[in-house]
Design a protein that fits this description.
The complex is a heterodimer of chains A (about 675) and B (about 300).
Chain A (H helix, E strand, L loop, with lengths): L7 E12 L3 E13 L4 E5 L6 H8 L8 E9 L2 E2 L5 H11 E4 L13 H10 L8 H13 L5 H6 L7 H13 L5 E5 L7 H18 L2 E6 L2 H7 L2 E6 L2 E7 H6 L4 H8 L11 E3 L24 H5 L5 E3 L2 E3 L12 E3 L12 H4 L5 E11 L10 E12 L4 E5 L6 H9 L6 E6 L4 H6 L7 E4 L13 H11 L8 H11 L6 H4 L8 H14 L4 E5 L7 H18 L2 E6 L2 H7 L2 E6 L2 E7 H6 L4 H9 L5 H6 L39 E5 L2 E4 L5
Parallel strand pairs in A: 3-8, 3-9, 6-7, 7-8, 17-21, 17-22, 19-20, 20-21
Antiparallel strand pairs in A: 1-2, 1-4, 4-5, 9-10, 10-13, 11-14, 12-13, 15-16, 15-18, 22-23, 23-25, 24-25
Helix pairs in contact in A: 3-4, 3-6, 15-16, 15-18, 16-18, 18-19
Chain B lengths: L8 H6 L6 H11 L5 H12 L14 H36 L4 H15 L2 H15 L17 H39 L2 H8 L4 H23 L1 H15 L4 H10 L3 H29 L7
Helix pairs in contact in B: 4-5, 4-7, 5-7, 6-7, 6-10, 7-9, 7-10, 8-9, 9-12, 10-11, 11-12
The chains are: A alpha/beta (about 675), B mainly alpha (about 300).
């Protein structure tokens, strides 16, 4: 440790949430954090561990009824407890910048981005149009790599893309050159590619301003990219802290080790791992070490005695059985047998589950109802075949038309031109036939909004069974229980009479899966099924999908922007951009040898779980964001963003070329 | 529907005196009441589009002129109820929301519930008894002091003096409505993420409330107030009757008693137009305030 006092020092911080109905919850207990100027500190843990609450409490931003019940916070030599709320607020505005997870909900919808940034610069509202402030807003936005700052400043939050909104949030946070920047899951709501851009941006800002930085995340991959020092939290307590290299090389706490093992690496042979169980409910904490119910090293002592956080030879850790090389709580989600499940046992027989032939889909753009003829070209000339039991992954940034294609396959919307056939039949027509069993079903991203909150799980499952006449009404209950059991919700009978809000995110997604499979479809379209879930739950759901395809011969169209997930799950990958496929091939081949410049960019955007490697590798960066699908670029859609583009790219749509067995690429610049 | 009510306008026109059946028949023909209802309706509709609402049986004057004479008084009654009481209600709503679940909040919410539940005519009579008869602070009836006619500024003050009680009776519902709406909507907005953002910028709490919370919280309040304009017009009928306020509501009341069909239908038509117009204006205001629903 160096001699200078740290920029921020937190000692023994405790936070409580008093609830009149069921007693007080202690969300955070005895947490110590230190941040030096110019240092990046990462705070890691699953959701529900108290990370966000911790960083918010530091400068009095706790949501009511939360309150700090103990501890000292010393920032820049000032004990924050000595400040009254107004002075604390002023200090927070002047010297601290906060960036939160979801930029849409954290921006005021009624004010322009410029007005909100101007407020942050001045520390008070600006009603008039001060040209000096307007200029500073634009300079600030320009620093953040925004090409047309004037337009962004005049836009309302809903008119901006997710990445742009997060840049506006960052602009507000750094407006007054803060000494400390606090980023609370700033990239969780963003695409992998935009995440990579934001991470680069954060690193640049930190290097230029020399501020201290706290980065809150559940993703250990990002920790490797950014952190100098790491704090790991579990169930409201700090369980381990140390330098990033040491944490990755020799994690001491089993939880830390488990989290690191659960990172889904890009490529390679490692299976999908997860930590079994869930973070305990803070109202019913287990006795002894809070992690022991999920820990393979747990002994009798762990069950009764809570270990203190202690500074040992190998770092600061809270565990009776600390040490690298001990048992890891990470377990394989699917078991070894699955690795042998070849992707193409159906393919050999020549059978085809889904046939997509030259499909196009366009629909009128919003606001075009008043005489406008603007069309959104969501899917452009896509042809694909899926074999039974195959997992085909569609990857691409938001707005690439992945979800539109998925909806077409399910038959929720008619195609504009081209044909889709599942086992030789049109899914849209089958869906319209009353009583007929649908050919394909869909699982959506957000398990919270895809279940009716007022209906019991029993009703959610009975509906498809009755509507599609899958079984006799008397058998509905037994059938539903069987489905829930199949999804790993055991015993299924316990879940029938619960409401969605009584279940965790992972459990809800299992119910959604059960509902989709109740109608016994041939094809399952899974639209970002895991991106709103925690890391460990994510792996469990992915494992479940793999098992379903193996046991039921289900063809799965997996829509995602996460290439690491794809590499573990999919047999084949299709890379989509502005409604067009750029590269199609076996998953391993595409990830190991990405050929299209766009695929290469996607692959390099995935965080590398190795601190040394993450900081030395060169990333393929592609500036900007996908253009609007209303005005498609001519020729190859990528040419305005592509570093390799030449004259021909702007004029001619590239043809498909085969670069390996079953591996096709549409690019002019690949021989 | 008006015609379904028992009674005949001719009874009122002819008064109490004896009248022969022949004379009745002649009058009926003169007023066009002998023709089938459908014919009367078609004739009426045709006239409306020429800006003719017909003649009042009772006043022997064009309905439109009668309404025009009375509109300013009703407007005068409704303006303070709207502006003053809704404004006050919003303020009280903010106060209650800031001290959510405190004693003050409960008190204000209870008061608002009471204000919303109390019938307008009853409140009006209560006010007359308490403030006019017992205390003698305000006049019981009318819009002007007829015994001592005044001019200029004194006349304005006289009208305001007469206005105080009826406007309070009418405005109480809106005070209650806007207090409750502002409170609940403010409580919701204060919980939203961008409030944390505004606070993290270091803005003083006063600014956070006035600039970030209030505009967002008022959006639903605007809608509800606009939708309740119809209720307010109904209320003004009752208030005008109780306070003998010479407005459109009073005219309608008299018209109903006299079975004055053209007058009743004319007033209801005008009121309907006003309600529709107010709702349209509400939607337009909404679009101006909220950029998310602006047409692109």
């Amino acid at each position: 440790m160096n001699a200078a006092p740290p920029l921020l020092s937190v000692r023994d911080l405790s936070i409580e949430f008093p609830r009149p109905e069921d007693g007080t919850t202690r969300a955070v207990e005895g947490v110590d954090i230190e941040v030096d100027a110019g240092e990046i500190v990462c705070l890691v843990g699953e959701s529900g561990c108290g990370k966000s609450v911790t960083v918010r409490s530091l400068f009095g931003l706790l949501p009511p009824p939360g309150r700090m019940v103990g501890g000292r916070v010393i920032f820049d030599g000032t004990d924050l407890a000595t400040l009254d709320p107004a002075r604390l607020r002023a200090l927070c505005g002047a010297s601290v910048g906060y960036v939160f997870q979801d930029p849409m909900t954290h921006l005021n919808p009624l004010l322009t981005a410029g007005a909100q940034i101007a407020e942050a610069i001045a520390g008070r509202p600006r009603w008039g149009r001060d040209p000096e402030v307007a200029r500073r807003v634009e300079v600030l936005l320009q620093e953040l790599g925004i090409g047309d700052p004037a337009r962004v400043a005049q836009s309302y939050p809903h008119q901006l893309s997710g990445g742009m909104r997060q840049r506006v949030m960052i602009a507000m946070a750094i407006a007054r050159r803060p000494r400390l920047l606090i980023l609370d899951e700033p990239t969780t709501a963003l695409d992998v590619t935009i995440q990579a851009q934001i991470i680069d941006l954060i690193r640049t800002i930190q290097r230029q301003t020399g501020c201290g930085l706290i980065f809150v995340t559940h993703d250990f991959g990002l920790v490797a990219e950014l952190a100098d020092r790491v704090y790991v939290m579990y169930a409201g307590q700090m369980v381990e802290q140390g330098r990033v290299e040491k944490i990755f090389a020799r994690p001491q706490h089993p939880y830390t080790q488990g989290l690191i093992d659960c990172i889904i690496p890009l490529g390679g042979e490692r299976p999908l791992l997860t930590i079994g169980g869930e973070v305990p409910d803070l109202r019913h904490l287990p006795a002894g070490c809070r992690f022991h119910p999920r820990c393979p090293r747990a002994s009798a002592r762990c069950r009764t005695e809570l270990p203190e956080i202690a500074c040992g030879a190998e770092g600061v850790v809270r565990c009776w059985h600390a040490g690298h090389g001990g048992l890891s709580p990470a377990v394989d989600v699917v078991g070894p047998t699955l690795a042998q499940t070849g992707p193409s046992h159906g393919r050999a027989a020549g059978s085809v589950a889904v046939q997509i032939a030259a499909v196009q889909k366009s629909f009128p753009a919003r606001g075009g109802a008043f005489g406008g003829r603007a069309m959104v070209h969501a899917v452009n000339d896509v042809s694909l075949d899926l074999a039974p039991g195959e997992i085909f992954a569609l990857v691409g940034e938001s707005g690439s038309g992945k979800s539109s294609l998925g909806r077409l396959v399910v038959g929720l919307e008619p195609t504009t031109s081209g044909q889709i056939a599942i086992a030789g039949e049109d899914p849209a027509r089958r869906l319209r036939t009353p009583g007929a069993r649908p050919l394909a079903q869909m699982v959506f991203q957000d398990p919270y909004s895809s279940l009716n909150p007022r209906k019991l799980i029993r009703h959610a499952l009975a509906q498809p069974l009755i509507n599609h006449r899958i079984c006799r009404p008397a058998e509905t209950e037994a059938r539903s229980i069987h489905l829930l059991d199949l999804m790993g919700l055991t015993p299924g009978a316990d879940f029938l009479d619960r409401y969605p809000h009584e279940l965790s995110g992972g459990q809800r997604q299992r119910v959604v899966l059960a509902r989709a499979l109740a109608a016994e479809p041939l094809v399952l379209v899974a639209d970002e099924p895991v991106s709103s879930l925690d890391m460990s739950t994510r792996a469990q759901i992915l494992g479940l999908l793999q098992r379903l395809r193996r046991d039921m011969g289900l063809a799965i169209l997996l829509i995602t922007h996460d290439l690491a997930v794809v590499g573990k799950m999919a047999d084949r990958i299709g890379v989509m951009y502005l409604g067009r496929l750029f590269e199609v091939g076996p998953a391993r081949a595409v990830i190991a040898r990405p050929t299209h410049p766009y695929t290469r960019m996607l692959v390099s955007a995935v965080p590398v779980p190795d601190p040394a490697l993450a900081r030395t590798r060169t990333r393929v960066v592609m500036g900007g964001e996908p253009p609007s699908p209303v005005h498609l670029p001519t020729g190859c859609h990528l040419h305005p963003r592509c570093g390799n583009a030449t004259a021909i790219c702007a004029q001619v749509v590239p043809d498909w070329r085969e670069v390996g067995p079953g591996h096709h690429v549409a690019c002019h610049h690949h021989a | 529907m008006v015609h379904l009510a028992p009674g005949d306008p001719l009874n009122f026109i002819t008064g109490e005196g004896d009248i022969s059946n022949e004379q009745l028949a002649r009058l009926r023909q003169e007023y066009g009441l002998d023709r089938p209802l459908s014919t009367q309706y078609i004739l009426y509709m045709a006239k409306i589009f020429q800006g003719d609402l017909g003649y009042s049986y009772r006043y022997r004057e064009p309905v439109l002129d009668l309404i025009q004479d009375r509109v300013p008084a009703t407007f005068l009654l409704m303006m303070p109820a709207l502006v003053l009481f809704v404004g006050l209600g919003i303020l009280l709503g903010i106060v209650a929301a800031r001290r959510q679940n405190s004693g003050g909040d409960l008190f204000l919410s209870g008061l608002a519930l009471l204000g919303w539940s109390v019938p307008v005519f009853w409140l009006g009579q209560l006010l007359i008894i308490a403030c006019a008869l017992k205390l003698g602070w305000f006049p019981t009836q009318g819009m002007l002091n007829l015994r001592a006619p005044t001019q200029g500024m004194a006349r304005v003050l006289d009208v305001l003096w007469h206005l105080a009680l009826p406007a309070t009776a009418l405005g109480m519902r809106f005070l209650a409505l806007s207090t409750r709406m502002t409170r609940s909507s403010m409580v919701q907005v204060l919980r939203l993420d961008y409030m944390t953002t505004a606070r993290a910028k270091g803005l003083p709490e006063r600014v956070v409330l006035s600039r970030h919370a209030l505009p967002n919280a008022l959006l639903p309040v605007i809608t509800i107030i606009g939708m309740n304009m119809g209720t307010m017009l109904t209320g003004s009928v009752l208030v005008e009757v109780v306070f003998a306020w010479p407005g459109m509501g009073r005219l309608l009341y008299d018209g109903v008693l006299a079975r004055d069909y053209p007058l009743i239908i004319g007033i209801i038509l005008i009121v309907s137009i006003v309600v529709v117009a107010v709702n349209l204006i509400t939607d337009i205001v909404y679009a101006i305030v909220d950029p998310r629903i602006r047409y692109t």
